[in-house]
Every structure is written in structure tokens, then in C-alpha cells.
Amino acid sequence: MTETPVHPALWPAPLADGAVDATVTVPGSKSVTNRGLVLAALAAEPGWLRRPLRSRDTLLMAGALRALGVGIEEGVGPDGSGEAWRVIPAALHGHATVDVGNAGTVMRFLPPVAALADGPVRFDGDPRSYERPLTGVIDALRALGARIDDDGRGSLPMTVHGGGALDGGRVEIDASSSSQFVSALLLSAPRFNQGVEVRHVGATLPSVPHIRMTVDMLRVVGAQVDEPETGGEPNVWRVSPSALLGRDLVVEPDLSNAQPFLAAALITGGRVVIPDWPERTTQPGDQLRQIFTEMGGSCELTERGLVFTGTGRVHGIDVDLSEVGELTPGIAAVAALADSPSTLRGVAHLRLHETDRLAALTKEINGLGGEVTETEDGLHIRPRTLHGGIFHTYDDHRMATAGAIIGLAVEGVRIENVATTAKTLPDFPRMWTGMLAGN
Ligand SMILES: O=C(O)C1=C[C@@H](OP(=O)(O)O)[C@@H](O)[C@H](O)C1
Ligand SMILES: C=C(OP(=O)(O)O)C(=O)O
Asked: Does the global pTM surpass 0.80?
């Protein structure tokens, strides 16, 4: 978290005037869309990405790949249904510039791709991107044969001097500050001359389901991956060199972006249906079924999608969120409205996300009269009667949606810069008012 920003745009978060009852169609997953784009760009033949998320993070990814020479065209999928991107791989060229914005997936997943380009690729982004950890990727790529000029900072801005190919091989990294370091190396590894063996040597590893998502998606495009969860050595992933297939991939709804809508049902004692909730998924948001059930709701996976129902009673929770860190802001918001205290653990690395999320949540919930304290690796939240006020977002999409959740139950909450939700959910304000209108 940097200094409290001054922003003219204050969005009055709507107060719920009863139990919500709505069906909310949630756009595609950011994490799946950006992995899908990278894998399709590295494939040996064209592929399709259907129902991709179109938000700041994914448009930055598409724009960067186009700058490297990849064709990404608008179209309908091969079966004629649904919006789609057709991805046409090409020889990756250098002398390009990549704007990462504040997208972790772009700033981590693309430097290995740039190492395969045939010239320099300059990476730059929002001021916050300079502060987010990147050394794991930079050091690993150097060890695998890449030349990177970062002026010794270990962070953005930097230039990757693509050599047209990369040796690859064995590398040790400390991914305790971001699972995306591991995902980044694995995603491009089929194109490294020797593939890769990544060994994580740090004390902790956050967001493991996101690494599982990387492995699953690599396998879908034909890559051979050895990994801990299917009998491999703990903390070691191996990807063999191979050509990748061009696939027709349908992107699942973003389950982490379903969170505020599920929270609305939980808090108001209402019901929200999320169509197309996958039966099996590596998305961490799937764990909301369990977490929000423990906090007082109930859910059922039906043909219509996930039906989530609340009673209006919300319980506190003691939970380790290390696997699902990106759900923390929404869970903290619900916990602030609960009937008992909560402890959220295992998420120290959130201090280096879009903003310092632990500091930001503490400051903003306490600014509304709450009692949140930071612990070494999370938050302790004692519910208090909250009052209205400005909820600052620090350019963090999940801070904005967390404020909206609180605003359902607390009159007079105004969200500063709700437009920051465009990072992953550009239509959030309209979707939110639509849900409250019962659409
Ligand atoms: O690989 C991914 O798509 C993501 C991994 C996680 O990052 P960290 O491991 O840095 O928490 C998650 O928080 C982020 O929203 C998306
Ligand atoms: C941490 C997040 O994003 P990023 O991909 O930028 O790391 C997030 O979406 O909560």
C-alpha cells in the first residue's frame, strides 16, 4: 500500500434492500485466458480461445503477444458459437515493447517468451509493477541462458535480449513470493532446447492450485510434465521439449470474480446462481464453495450452475488461505460483517500483490469503524458495527469489490476508483446493480 490516494471518482456502493435473488453470468477466468494465450502463441499450429476474458490484464497479454508477432484475431469459434480469439503463432520477433500494466501474469509469464524472440524486448508497466517481485524469473532465465538487462534492480523496467532460442535445463528458484515464477518457467519450457527442471527451494509456496492449472493446461496442449502431485519429487517440476498443439479451448468463468456475488447471497440471506460453474477445475475460486459454506451459506451444483444460498447469518472463520490468496480481500469483507471473529492465515505474500493487501484491508475496514489487525501472515478480524465512509482501493480490483460487499450491509460506503475493477472485471458496477435489481 502506498499513500492514501486522492481520487475524484467516488462510487456510492449500493445498499441491499433485501435478499438478493439473481443469476450472474461471470466472464472468463483471467488466469485461464492468459495461460491459454501464451500456450497458443507458442504452439506449432493455430488455435482457438473461446469466451476469453476481455479485461485490462488479458488485453495487455494479447497486446504484448501481438507486439512479438503473434496473430490474435477476433472471430467465432469453430462450431460457430461464442465469441473467440483465433491465435496464429509466428516466429517471435524482438525490437518490441511490452506494457505489463500491473498484471502479475504478464510481467512473469512473458519474459521467458521474450527470451525466445530474435531481438530485444523492453518490459515496462505501472509504477506498482516496479515493486512486485520478479527476481525469481530474472535469475532463473539468466541461469537458463538468457541475457537480461535490469540495471541490477531485479525488477521492472528491464530488457530481455531474446536470442531466438533458449538452452533451458535445471534451475533452482525461491517462489515463496509468487507461484507465478514457477508457472512462468513451465509455460514456455516446451520451447526451450532442453525443456526445464524447476526446483522450488523457498520455505513456502503460495497459490499451488495456480501451478496445477499451469500443469493441466500444458498437458492439454500436448506437453509432457512431471510434477509432485502425480508422483514426482516434492517441489520439482519437469517439462520436456516438444511441439505444442493448437487447441480449441473454452475458458471457464472466473470463479474468483464470482466471489462478490456469492458474498452478496451470503450476507443478505439471498440466492445467487452462477451458470457454467465447472464440475472440476483448478481455479482456486472453487474453494469458495467450502469457505462460504463454513461462513454460513449453502451451495449446490446443479444443471443451472452453482446455486448459492445464504441465511443472512454470517460466521467468522479461522482459515489458511495460502492456496487461495486472491480470495482474501472478499473473505475479509465478509468476515467484517460476521457474528464472530476471524483469523485469515498463510497470506504474507499478499503484501506484494496489486497493493499491500493486508495493510490496505486493515486501514480501509478500520476506517469504517472495524477492528482488523495485521498478523505476521494474515489478518485478525473482530466484527464491529460499521459506518459509512470512503473505501480506498489503491488500484486494486479486489479492494474495490471488497468495499462493494461491505457496502451491501453498511449505508454510505463510497468506493474510490471503482473503475480499477477493469483489471479483471470491467463490467463490475453494472453487474452489481443488475444483481441487486434481480436480473
Ligand atoms: O498464476 C496465476 O494466474 C495467479 C497466481 C496467484 O499469484 P501469486 O502466487 O503471486 O499469489 C494469484 O494470486 C494471481 O491472482 C493469479
Ligand atoms: C494477485 C492478483 O493478480 P496478479 O495476476 O496481478 O498477480 C489478483 O488478481 O488477485
From this structure: yes
